[in-house]
Amino acid sequence: MHRAEKIWIGFGVATLVIFLIIIGAAALSENMIPPSHVQTIDPTRVAQTSPFDHPGLHRTGPKTYDAYIIAHIFAFTPVSITIPAGAQVTFYSTSPDVVHGFFITDTAVNMLVVPGWVSSASHVFRKRGTYLLLCNEYCGAGHHYMYGTVEVK
Amino acid sequence: MTSDLQVKRENPLVLAHLYFATLALMLGAVFGFLQALSRARWLSMPTWFDYYRMLTAHGVLMAIVFTTFFIVGLATLFTYRAIPRQRSLALGWLAFWLMATGTAAAAAAILSGNASVLYTFYAPLKAHPAFYIGTTLLVIGTWIVLIDILTNVAWFRRNHSGERLPLVVHGATCTFMMWFIATLGVAIEMLFFLIPWSLGWTPTVNVMMTRILFWYFGHPLVYFWIMGAYLIWYNIVPLHYGGRVFSDSLTRLTFLLLLILSTPVGLHHEFVEPGIAAGWKWLHTMLTYGVVIPSIMTAFAIFASFELAAQRRGLRGFWGTVRSLPWDNPALTGPVLGMILFIFGGLGGIVNASYSMDVIVHNTMWIVGHFHVTVGGPVALTFVGTSYWLIPRLTGRRLWAPKLALAQTYMWFVGMAVMSTAMHWAGLLGSPRRTDDVSYFGTQAASLWMPHMQAAAIGGSLLFLSILMFAAVAFGTLFTERDESQVIEFAQVDEHAATTPAYLDRIGGWGLAAVILAILAYAGPIHELLHLHVYGAPGLRTW
């Protein structure tokens, strides 16, 4: 092999290793891991299965909430939630029909909702305002009408 | 050894693939253009031909039909020309007709509105069986291409013992072996899950299993395109600037590494999905970055080949090398402008594949911007540019309107740069992909996206014009004056290239390694899925 080629490949491999160490360290120390909740649910009985039989916001502590939101064609239920600034919300979502996206703009809440499975992601809302919750995976003819809001007051 | 007559029999098979690819590109471009206008709200699609039907057609035609037919044509040509002999074309034509029939069936289902499931056909969206059966036929057709290549490789080994396989055949074999290993996933998804379910034989479908099987195939699909482009970058492009292949063994090693590293990476498309533990996603992240190695090897070899050719002509330094390239030859400007776009495609890919950064861009327009500067940049521009070199040599005619062809490549580059930049930007602002109207009834967050969607529509319009120009030249070349003096050859290896060790020529062993690595990467998540009580989902037609 050429000397220049060895240097170049060595440089590439070194960059790769440094990069993997950084994202590995971020995953371990900051818990920066992608949403990977493993929990199944009968998709034909979502509306009868707790806690999705009472979808909405549930307070779990002084500044912590659980939000159970059903993603279905072509809407979110409930369509809007209101929380105080600084609250940490853990979202749980599932679908009774087809695959949907669950994405809140300006946040790292971005997950896929799959019938038969419960998805979960958590976020601390520090900035006040209206965040758009939208379906970012194609689900059918009315896909572009499928959105909701998160109001941070 | 081989008569001109044999070559004259082989050319129509290759041309059939190239023109089928061109037709798919043309039709796909019409839908792409309408989509770009639709997202900018400059046009509203009628209900009898809605946005999602069009989006499905665009994705299938561009990502699967155009690319696959072109690569099959290329690999067939490389194999036949580098191993000249009297051979039967029965397998070649059987593959073509299976692929064409499958495409026609799937296209009929999509265009009639019975398969608006996009090119990823995620269950439980349930399309007409013709869509699944047609797509499966297309895939099975490509397996016959692999059999055809391997038959010729076996003949070569018998009759040329002790010799290395011709470099282009080595590359074509690696490409189609990788493709076979990868398409097994989608074939299992189709044959055991989607086809029986769409025919009503099974009531429900295991959604997560179909997704894992799809992405087992879906990411290697990307490397299939890239390997098609690399085949040209290594073996054809040097001819245009009087260069040579930088190194025979490095080229072989690149293709072998792509053969083993392309498949065990699919979960990086499923980062935000439930049902797959984070550890498996991390494993696939690390394996995905393995592809950095053959990528930087290719970057080195391509630029080294440019520089050595420039030096032979007395030109030195970066600008000397740039000046030495024939920027007025569309067969060169296509691939080289594509390489420039690929730098941005590669950088964006690092973001997408990284475990933690992906959530910011997942399923946003960023992703659409990314794959338009990969498959729509280096890959498509290389194929289109190389068609200007291939078609005249296969038809025995002069290239029609070479200046139009040259302008076409530059126009594509500008159009793609504009469109992709706008898409990346809109994605960072949160604009979702795969969505007809992103105005969300005038929501403020959504209003930030619209200027970028309009910029993307301008870029998309340039791309549409560019593809029309390509089609005019491709079909115009069928009617120009005869010129049999143009020959198809492959770039010679640089005289300084070291002799190739034999282990780089034993593709079978590397193929076995590829299978083992794929099993190691997927056994864990699939095992976990099989041991959970998973609820099946009934199908739905939501369009």
Key attributes of the depicted protein:
heterodimer; A: 153 residues; alpha+beta; five-stranded mixed sheet; 1 helix; elongated; B: 543 residues; mainly alpha; two-stranded antiparallel sheet; 19 helices; 2 strands; 70% helix; globular
Would you kindly provide a written description of the structure presented here, covering whatever features stand out?
The complex is a heterodimer of chains A (153) and B (543). With 153 residues, chain A is of the alpha+beta class. In chain A, 18% of the residues lie in helices and 37% in strands. Chain A is built from one helix and ten strands; from the N terminus they run H-E-E-E-E-E-E-E-E-E-E. In chain A, the strands form two sheets. In chain A, strands 1, 2, 3, 5 and 8 form a five-stranded mixed beta sheet that branches. In chain A, strand 6 and strand 7 (110-113) form a beta hairpin. Helix content of chain B is 70%, strand content 1%. Chain B has 19 helices and two strands. Chain B has helices at 4-39, 51-82, 90-111, 129-159, 167-198, 207-235, 237-240, 248-261, 278-289, 292-312, 317-324, 330-353, 358-361, 365-372, 375-395, 402-428, 444-447, 450-476, 507-530; strands at 204-205, 537-538. A two-stranded antiparallel ribbon of chain B has the order 1-2. Chain B is globular and about 60 Å long. The N and C termini of chain B lie far apart (58 Å). The model of chain B has no long low-confidence stretch (mean pLDDT 95). The interface between A and B is large, with 64 and 68 residues.
What is the element layout, followed by pairings?
The complex is a heterodimer of chains A (153) and B (543).
Chain A: H1 3-29, E1 56-59, E2 64-72, E3 75-77, E4 80-83, E5 87-94, E6 100-104, E7 110-113, E8 119-125, E9 129-134, E10 147-152
Parallel strand pairs in A: 2-5, 4-10
Antiparallel strand pairs in A: 1-2, 2-3, 5-8, 6-7, 6-9, 9-10
Chain B: H1 4-39, H2 51-82, H3 90-111, H4 129-159, H5 167-198, E1 204-205, H6 207-235, H7 237-240, H8 248-261, H9 278-289, H10 292-312, H11 317-324, H12 330-353, H13 358-361, H14 365-372, H15 375-395, H16 402-428, H17 444-447, H18 450-476, H19 507-530, E2 537-538
Antiparallel strand pairs in B: 1-2
Helix pairs in contact in B: 1-2, 1-3, 1-15, 1-18, 2-3, 2-4, 2-5, 2-6, 3-4, 4-5, 5-6, 5-8, 5-19, 6-15, 8-10, 8-19, 10-11, 12-14, 12-15, 12-16, 14-16, 15-16, 16-18
